[in-house]
């Protein structure tokens, strides 16, 4: 299942950090690296700091946006400080994150997303995530290098994978129902937006209604069947609205 764990680096500035991250991944059995708009790649500095993880670099997938990087994933976990204004489900402990990620990796790809060296992930990028995770550190100096953060979370994933047959993992039994991909969730949220606009529900542009609904569905983690049911409900509302707006046929 480690092959279903994807490390995503967003707009990495220094190519050496890409190489060091690849090295951190390989030591923990991870091979799937996706780069979103890296400043320089491929690059000799990345190869030098990979220190033998050249195969991870050679197979890295380069894409133009975070949405493209995670659209087939069943879970997307953004590594960042807890953001109160975006109330996504949050793992306070990396080991809890790892257990959940390994459970979901039985169904499809799971992405761990790391932002830029200087300022991390933007709010819009966090909205591409289903969960957040923070790495507990010294409150007076909680600064981790990008590759160090990749190493810490990759180690937790590896630990959870090693414990799959053990009793600790039994508490994180994977769900039997299939989870939707991020592409399917995006289509749902686009559909929900159209319906809410059509019925006049979105009347206060600054109320952040859609952010709260996005967080609600992220916490709920609807299955593909449940998402299909919700899409059917939205379609029925649209159809009802179209019929009610038709002019009456008077004889």
UniProtKB/TrEMBL annotation:
**SUPFAM superfamilies, alphabetically?**
alpha/beta knot
| Gene Ontology MF: a single term | tRNA (cytidine(32)-2'-O)-methyltransferase activity
Q: Where is the tRNA/rRNA methyltransferase SpoU type domain?
A: 5-153
Query: Which InterPro entries does the entry link to?
Result: Alpha/beta_knot_MTases (IPR029028), RNA_MeTrfase_TrmJ/LasT (IPR004384), SpoU_MeTrfase (IPR001537), tRNA_m1G_MTases_N (IPR029026)
Fill in the subunit field for this protein: Homodimer.
What PANTHER family does the database record attribute to this sequence? TRNA (CYTIDINE_URIDINE-2'-O-)-METHYLTRANSFERASE TRMJ, TRNA/RRNA METHYLTRANSFERASE
* Record's keyword annotation contains Oxidoreductase: no
As for family, the record states: Belongs to the class IV-like SAM-binding methyltransferase superfamily. RNA methyltransferase TrmH family.
Q: Where are the transmembrane segments?
A: none
Reported EC number(s) for this entry are: 2.1.1.200
Q: Which top-rank group of organisms is this from? A: Bacteria
Query: Where is this chain's protein located in or outside the cell?
Result: Cytoplasm
UniProt-listed NCBIfam families: rRNA_methyl_1
* One BP term from GO: tRNA nucleoside ribose methylation
Its UniProt entry gives the catalysed reaction(s) as: cytidine(32) in tRNA + S-adenosyl-L-methionine = 2'-O-methylcytidine(32) in tRNA + S-adenosyl-L-homocysteine + H(+); uridine(32) in tRNA + S-adenosyl-L-methionine = 2'-O-methyluridine(32) in tRNA + S-adenosyl-L-homocysteine + H(+)
Q: What is this protein called?
A: tRNA (cytidine/uridine-2'-O-)-methyltransferase TrmJ
Which keywords does UniProt give here?
Answer: Cytoplasm, Methyltransferase, S-adenosyl-L-methionine, Transferase, tRNA processing
Q: Name one Pfam family in it.
A: SpoU_methylase
State the GO CC annotations: cytosol
| Main function | Catalyzes the formation of 2'O-methylated cytidine (Cm32) or 2'O-methylated uridine (Um32) at position 32 in tRNA.
């Amino acid at each position: 299942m480690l092959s279903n764990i994807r490390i995503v680096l967003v707009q990495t500035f220094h190519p050496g950090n890409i190489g060091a991250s690849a090295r951190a991944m390989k030591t923990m059995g991870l091979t799937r690296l996706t780069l979103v708009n890296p400043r320089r790649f491929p690059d000799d500095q990345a190869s030098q700091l990979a220190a033998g993880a050249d195969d991870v670099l050679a197979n890295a997938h380069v894409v133009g946006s975070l949405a493209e990087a995670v659209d087939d994933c069943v879970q997307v976990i953004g590594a960042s400080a807890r953001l109160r204004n975006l109330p996504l489900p949050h793992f306070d402990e990396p080991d809890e994150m790892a257990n959940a990620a390994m459970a979901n990796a039985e169904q499809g790809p799971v992405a761990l997303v790391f932002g830029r060296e200087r300022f991390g992930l933007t709010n819009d990028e966090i909205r591409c995530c289903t969960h957040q995770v923070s790495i507990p550190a010294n409150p007076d100096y909680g600064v981790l290098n990008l590759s160090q953060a990749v190493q810490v979370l990759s180690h937790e994933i590896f630990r959870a994978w090693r414990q799959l047959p053990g009793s600790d993992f039994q508490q994180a039994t994977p769900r039997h129902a299939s989870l939707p991909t991020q592409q399917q969730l995006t289509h749902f949220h686009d559909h929900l937006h159209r319906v809410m606009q059509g019925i006049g529900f979105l009347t206060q542009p600054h109320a952040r209604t859609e952010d709260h609904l996005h967080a609600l569905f992220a916490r709920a983690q609807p299955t593909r069947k449940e998402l299909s049911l919700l899409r059917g409900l939205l379609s029925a509302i649209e159809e009802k609205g179209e019929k009610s707006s038709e002019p009456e046929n008077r004889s």
